[in-house]
Write a structure and sequence with these properties.
Shape: globular
Number of strands: 14
Structural class: alpha/beta
Number of helices: 8
Radius of gyration: 19 Å
CATH superfamily: Ribonuclease Z/Hydroxyacylglutathione hydrolase-like
Largest sheet: 7 strands, mixed
Strand order of the largest sheet: 6-5-4-3-2-1-14
Strand content: 15-25%
Helix content: 10-25%
Length: 288
């Protein structure tokens, strides 16, 4: 598998508009890898996109991606879905006659399809409009079911935050676990034994891993439903993966790319039971 990180930011990308902290100013002056756009992954050998952030058009142009044959959605949150118009932008034929639109197969896990009916972040009417126009074909993946794309078996895994899904990709004896977000409370199951690569959100940094300084106040509401970095490390250990990349890195943590890489190296060195942990960045490609 050839996996590209289109965007490695979270709900608040880096730099944050109007913010002049050192992390945001460094991102403005240096660009990638210090700059992080909205969350998204592309599996190049499958032409498979996972999620469509508001930055998706820019990301696809930057990556030189001309066609998306398939798309999977992990959950309804706006930072993962608000770029869904990309299929109209890419697939509509605005020049030829008679019109010959392209089409993308869009897969919605069962709860994501249900949530699309109710949440502004992912308007079902827009999907229906694009399907009626011939730009997408939408299909629901029932819980417990799986799909196959280009010889790769993909199993959606409902997380503890049960509106969200991770995905297990199995190809020629290799296993890849991808969780775009929302790992709070998740307990890996037996299906994931011996995976080759895990791509998971970093979690929020309640404490600085090196200085132990408190970075988020204990009363902060996000601590009630968001995985912390410490919780993420516990999940990584239970996954028993060979390699791990952290993504969905939030501006609120105020940690630069260099500092995050230093933290990842320190954690890997101090915890021999963990795999080598790396920090993903926009445009990074990894191969399995």
């Amino acid at each position: 598998m050839d996996i590209e990180f289109l965007g490695t930011g979270g709900a608040v990308t880096i730099p944050r508009a109007g913010c002049h902290c050192s992390v945001c100013e460094e991102a403005r002056s240096k660009g990638v890898p210090f700059k992080r756009s909205g969350p998204g992954l592309f599996i190049r050998d499958l032409s498979l996109l996972i999620d469509t952030s508001e930055d998706i058009a820019m990301q696809l142009n930057r990556a030189g991606i001309d066609r998306i044959l398939y798309c999977l959605y992990s959950h309804w949150h706006p930072d993962h879905t608000m770029g869904c118009r990309i299929f109209e932008m890419m697939n509509a034929d605005r020049h030829g006659w008679p019109r010959k639109p392209k089409c993308t197969d869009v897969f919605l896990p069962e709860q994501v399809a249900e949530d699309a009916e109710h949440h502004l972040g992912f308007p079902i009417d827009h999907l229906r409009y694009m399907e009626q126009s011939g730009w997408i074909r939408a299909a629901v993946i029932a819980d417990g079911a799986r799909i196959e794309i280009g010889g790769t078996v993909i199993t959606p895994i409902r997380l503890a935050e049960d509106y969200a899904y991770a995905f297990l990709l199995e190809q020629r004896g290799k296993k890849v676990f991808i969780a775009a977000d929302e790992l709070h409370g998740y307990e890996p199951d037996a299906r994931l034994a011996g995976i080759d690569l895990a791509i998971v959100p970093s979690g929020i940094f309640e404490f600085h891993p090196l200085t132990h300084e408190r970075l988020i106040e204990p009363e902060a509401p996000e601590l009630k439903d968001k995985a912390t970095f410490a919780e993420t490390l516990t999940i990584i250990r239970k996954l028993q993966t060979k390699r791990c990349y952290l993504t969905h890195i939030e501006e609120v943590d105020r940690l630069s790319h260099d500092e995050l890489c230093h933290i990842a190296q320190f954690v890997s060195d101090m915890n021999p039971h963990l795999p080598t942990i790396r920090i993903a960045y926009d445009g990074l490609r990894v191969f399995v």
